[in-house]
Design brief:
4 helices; Nuclear Transport Factor 2, Chain: A; 164 residues; five-stranded antiparallel beta sheet; single chain; alpha+beta
Amino acid sequence: MTRLRLGVVFVVLAAVFAGWGGWTLWQAGRPFDAEVARDAALQAGRSGVATLTTLDYQSIDAGFGRWLEVSAGPLREELSSAQDASKQQIAKAKTVTTGTVLEAAVTELDVTVGTARVIAAVEIVVRPEVGEQAAKRSRFQADLARTDTGWKLTGLAQVPYVPA
């Protein structure tokens, strides 16, 4: 083999090795990105569900402000459009609800599109102005979207309990 051919072979092998190494590093980084996104979506989902199941009739405006902070898209639009009627109902009922997320998990994640779905088991304590407080457990499904300011809830639905 001539020196020129040997040099070309080494250059080609070096290029192949560099390409393979770069591709391997890129692939190795992708699961980390997914893990970071999953953790961020889970945290935002837990926090958002707790926020949206918590409201004090004595500070309705602040509560609705928090609701709008954790929401985006269709959910935010729905909350905004129903805000006045909801505030009147809550003020009339004179209740304080506190939601605590007991367990949560990410069930779907699309890092490329920036969407996620979280399910959560929540204990909601309802304290009326008069009478006994009551606690109930509910399951929720939250849809999230990644925004410029982090993950926000775009949908929230109660998941019915269906015994086996």
